[in-house]
Each structure stands twice: as structure tokens, then as C-alpha cells.
């Protein structure tokens, strides 16, 4: 799962680095991304909320399934995009050149940050494995339902943002 998150972060960071960040602030991109993120978060939240799994998972998920889950979940998180746009805006200060060699220090900083994030993700995996052995099935069930509720709430918020942008976007088109 940590590898999936890492690859998702890397793709977003490289997309921002190579100039796609200007598209990320366009109204049509925000509209589409908020709609997709809203639906994805609500679905994940409902699945967690209505899950009848009151026992801790006994069998580890396949590597492919864990990788995919980490990649998709992280890719649906709009804060990842905002994080990397902000990081690149900050790292670009003082590096005004357009050539690759002039922007190479920014790319090196970017990969340093990615390695640090990957290290933190690996620590989270270790900690979750450690804590997973310490909590009871009942506590696991409550935590799963609680985070399902949070995901639904965040998804509904993004749905509201989508609806607001959709109405605003269409009102500007038809004036």
C-alpha cells in the first residue's frame, strides 16, 4: 500500500514539475476532479460504514490489491494535488530558469521530499501492523465505521463543492 501511495505521489509531483499545475487550477479540471473525488470517497466511506466485518482481517491482501488500493485512494485525495502545487511553488523560488539544468535543483528537492514521505509511509505501515496486533475486534469495528463516516462526510463536502462549481460554471457559460 505504501508503494501505491508513493507512486501516486510521484506521478502528481512530476506532473506539477513538468508544467501541468497550470491546468490544475482551471475551473473545468476542478469541476471534474471534485466530482470524481466526491463519488470515490462516498463509495469508500459507505463500504466501510456498512461493512459487517467485525473481525480483524486474518489474511493479508495480495500485493497488487494493496498497491492498487493505496494508489487509487491517494490519487482521489485532492489535498495531494494542493500539497505538490504548494511544494513546487515554494521550491521554485530563486530558480527562475526554464532549462532543465536550471530546474534540476528543484527536481532533486522533489525526490528528497518523496523519499522522506515514503519513509514516513513505511513507518505508518509498521505502526499499523504493531497496533493491529494490540486492538480488539470490537475496537477495529468501531474504528472502521468511524472512518467510513468521515469519508462519507468529506465526500459529501466535495459533492457540495462540485454542485456549487457546476452551477457557477454553467451560469457563466449561459450569460
Q: Can you give keywords for this protein?
A:
mainly alpha, 6 helices, flat
Tally the beta strands.
Answer: 0
Percent range of helical residues: over 70%
Helix count?
Answer: 6
Number of separate structural domains? 1
Could you spell the SSE succession in H and E letters? HHHHHH
Residue stretches low in confidence (pLDDT < 50, at least 5 long) are none
By oligomeric state, this entry counts as single chain
User: Describe the biggest sheet?
Assistant: none
Mean pLDDT across residues:
80
Written description of the protein model:
The chain is 82% helix and 0% strand. The chain is mainly α. It has one domain. It is flat. The relative contact order is 0.19.
What would you say about this model in short?
The protein has helices spanning 2-24, 27-49, 63-76, 78-91, 100-132, 137-173. The chain is mostly helical and 175 residues long.
Topology:
Blueprint lengths: L1 H23 L2 H23 L13 H14 L1 H14 L8 H33 L4 H37 L2
Helix pairs in contact: 1-3, 1-4, 1-5, 2-6
Amino acid at each position: 500500500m505504501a508503494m501505491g501511495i508513493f507512486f501516486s505521489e510521484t506521478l502528481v509531483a512530476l506532473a506539477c514539475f513538468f508544467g501541468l499545475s497550470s491546468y490544475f487550477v482551471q475551473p473545468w479540471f476542478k469541476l471534474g476532479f471534485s466530482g470524481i473525488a466526491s463519488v470515490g470517497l462516498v463509495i469508500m466511506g459507505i463500504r466501510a460504514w456498512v461493512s459487517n466485518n467485525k473481525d480483524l482481517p486474518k489474511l493479508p491482501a495480495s500485493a497488487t490489491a494493496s498497491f492498487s488500493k493505496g494508489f487509487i485512494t491517494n490519487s482521489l485525495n485532492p489535498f495531494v494535488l494542493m500539497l505538490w502545487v504548494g511544494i513546487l511553488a515554494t521550491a521554485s523560488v530563486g530558480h527562475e530558469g526554464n532549462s532543465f539544468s536550471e530546474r534540476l535543483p528543484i527536481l532533486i528537492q522533489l525526490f528528497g521530499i518523496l523519499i522522506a514521505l515514503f519513509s514516513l509511509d513505511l513507518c505508518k505501515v509498521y505502526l499499523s501492523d504493531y497496533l493491529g496486533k494490540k486492538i480488539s475486534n470490537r475496537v477495529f469495528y468501531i474504528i472502521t465505521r468511524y472512518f467510513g463516516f468521515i469519508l462519507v462526510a468529506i465526500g459529501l463536502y466535495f459533492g457540495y463543492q462540485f454542485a456549487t462549481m457546476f452551477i457557477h460554471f454553467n451560469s457563466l457559460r449561459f450569460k
